[in-house]
Structure formats: structure tokens, C-alpha cells
Amino acid sequence: MGARKRNKANSLKEEKKTTYLAKLNNCPTSPRKMRLVADQIRGVEVNKALDILHFSPKEASIRLEKLLKSAISNWQQKNEGARLEDSDLFVKQISVDSGRVLKRIQPAPQGRAHRIKKRSNHVTLIIDSLTNNNEA
Known about the structure:
Layout lengths: L2 H15 L2 E8 L3 H11 L4 H9 L5 H19 L10 E19 L5 E17 H6 L1
Antiparallel strand pairs: 1-3, 2-3
Helix pairs in contact: 3-4
């Protein structure tokens, strides 16, 4: 392995140590509906994002709230002594990707059939602290 690759690999390892993420795979909601809720919390402080998701009427917000709590829990495991209120955590990145598509048949008139696509998605949520960004 060359020096440039080794340096890049080491920098990625150091970056992963300060990254706190949670993943949700094969969520049975269409990606388009999930992105509507994900866009509301992108870049928002964590406590405010929890409030937004808690009071949102959309079904996707229930799953994203649980995912955000999981990411916060991952942060708490790595930083045992730190308090959530003092940490200035925010949603750094949230991405919604398309998952597998289940193809089903819907009976139609005159002996025909229509195809139904039941879509799913994968969500990756990364949280970070504002104090980490100011030091860099």
C-alpha cells in the first residue's frame, strides 16, 4: 500500500471515531415519503429534531424518531461522561436510499392484472457535535 493510500485510510479511521451513526434497512415505506420527513430534520439540533419528529403526523416520522434515538444512544456509549444538553449535537447527514421492491399483482376487470410495486428504503443518519466542527 502506498503512502497516500495509507494516510487516507488513517484519516478515515480517525474520522469514524468521531462519527456517530445509525442505519435503518428495508423500512417498508416508500423512499419519497421518507425523504419528506428526513428533509425537515437535516441540519437541525438533535433535541429540536426529536420534537419535530414526535409531533409530525406522518408515519415515517415514527421510524425516524426511533432511528435518531438510536444514533443518540450510540453517541452516549462512546462518550460516557458527557451530557446530551451540553454536547450541541445536530443531524449532520441523513440519506434515504431505495431498498428492495416487492412486486405484487392487483386483479383488474376483464381478466387483466395490474402490477403493484411495494417500495422500501434504507436510511442512514449521522449526528455530530458543533464543538467538533469548530475545532477543526
